[in-house]
């Protein structure tokens, strides 16, 4: 299936700087796709710390199981990512494959298999033969270069219509550190399920325990705040590698809450949000990016659940695809979330204009006032549920005919 | 918008017998639709007991609030249902409307306003003027007839493509009692949300407390087991009225668990399931009825959540629309439900054929074997999650282009 680039894609691929201690290479192994790179190797200098966040699915893939286990060591020497086969629901064969890939990479790099991280995306339920990957590794280790970011981002794509990357800098311990991230994710892959894979690299020197706390916090307000259709992959993986090549951070940083980490933490938040929004912007069939801000909820968690209820509502998403400011459906989606909301204090704004307040339509509201907002590419919905001070903000895309085309077609 | 009849509709409207103590009439009041009946009155003889189940939405409509309150009295003399305006999110004006309709009907029937039940479906956020309804009531009380079931079922339709009704009989206290039910519901109503309204009438003599237990139990395995798109209306209402016209039931029935009630309870279960399936069969854009049976879960409740996760997955629903036996998406939907499942014991069958077992594809499975099942109108998915003995069965429909057409069109 040909994929035209999403109308919500960024204008261009960012100019990605080198990250000390990170070298990248990709290869076309023909696992599923022909004539395109489908395996990425990122080689990391010794001493690289690692953190990770994974799918909450109860049927997660073999590479996710592997990473969760490897993460206990806290150190990484490489990450191997393949597109085309998710190595999910593959039983013992799946475990043998991740073990073989890790052993081969560890042998080449002179490290422990537990320092090799892995992620896979693509068809599920099909055994993934490790041979094409392990054979490619020799060449990949040799070819790895510090500048290969565009190819790296392309090698992990499946039905993505554009390669996703972002870069930021921050001050840490008197030095400037850099954070680069690449991501893939587009909703769903015909004939299989979506997967979001993200790899983030920084030259900052931060130990893995602190790195994990920073990553978990950033993921909570970024990758956990996007949805294309409410379906959760078996394989979602976000990895963060810190090589320390920028030089030692301030001594005595013992906790993620240390104020000296704040600029780094904020830069990481921003990078994660940028990548997360790129995934939502590449949602299958997306014509509009939808931002949903909920305030006044019992807690931030309650606000998040209400916002996700709106974001996952097929009714809301089809209405927006039709450029219809159908706030009644927003009321419905707030109501069905199961969280506390005071109906008679509920206030809804679309594109900054109040459409409903005090449990009924705002008498001053005229639908014509928001028609130009509805015709735009970025729709903003705000709902205040009148209970307390909990708040959340999430992003999704609209539900269009192309989503059905992409996901309802026969398997070829 | 013209609606062609769902390909999943029953062959014909059932032959509905008279229920002693129930008389029906409908009228065209022009609330929203032109030239079609849009208000239904069912007059009930004195002594009629009532039970009800309602939406769990936190932003429920004024008629739902009214019914919940009226239910405390346990007795009913009438139910008034209108289509075209849901009287939801209408603030104090909404309360004034339900109060005015109840007062007018109570005056005409010589009863308390709290014995008048109400339900509304249609546009939300628009004030519902009580005048057209209260004016029509005089004529409706006069015109009410015991035989008017087909007109009654039609008067409450919105985007339904066929009128929904069912009838059953059961033995109770040595007599044959009859249960008639009518329902409306079709997923969503452009430009507004779906609502499922069900009214059930029986000539059995059963006090309201026992009636409530029987109804709640039946609803749990029927109306709570269907979904079109996971969106919950502000207005869902199921009411059960027992006139007692068939004569007194066995004396000494003090509990819903009394074995003498079993035939009635089973008949009620069957009737509710029939009506619930009719709603799923009329899901917007539906081409296939999907039945999902989950076994081996930690509890029946866990099984229900897993089954609903599969039923609400846009990925599963679009795959079935495309006649694609994409069991990988079923694995994903089981995994995302958040309930315990043993990946390596997971077994999935489609159309009775095992496609996956022991955490991987069944080696004996060939996709060609289930192609004829996938091309049919009734798709059966079974998933055993290998934990314990919890089970559940739910029904939904596929997700097609017509769903987007119906719900993504501009409001006219």
CATH fold descriptor of the largest domain in chain A: L-amino peptidase D-ALA esterase/amidase
- Determine the most extensive contact between two protein chains: A-B, 67 and 69 residues
Under CATH at level 1, the class of the largest domain in chain A stands as: Alpha Beta
Instruction: Encode the helix/strand succession of chain A as letters.
Output: EEHEHEHHEEEHEHEHHHEEEHEEH
Average pLDDT across residues of chain A? Answer: 90
User: In DSSP terms, counting alpha (H) and pi (I) runs of 4 or more, how many helices of chain A?
Assistant: 11
Describe it.
With 412 residues, the first copy, chain A, is an alpha+beta fold. Chain A folds into two domains: 22-281, L-amino peptidase D-ALA esterase/amidase; 289-408, Roll (Ubiquitin-like (UB roll)), CATH 3.10.20. Chain A has eleven helices and 14 strands. In chain A, the strands form two sheets. In chain A, strands 1, 2, 3, 4, 5, 6, 7 and 8 form an eight-stranded mixed sheet that branches. Chain A has a six-stranded mixed sheet with strand order 12-11-10-13-9-14. In chain A, β11 (353-357) and β12 form a beta hairpin. The model of chain A is unreliable at 188-193 (pLDDT under 50). Chains A and B meet through α8, α9, β12 and α11 of A and α2, α8, α9, β12 and α11 of B.
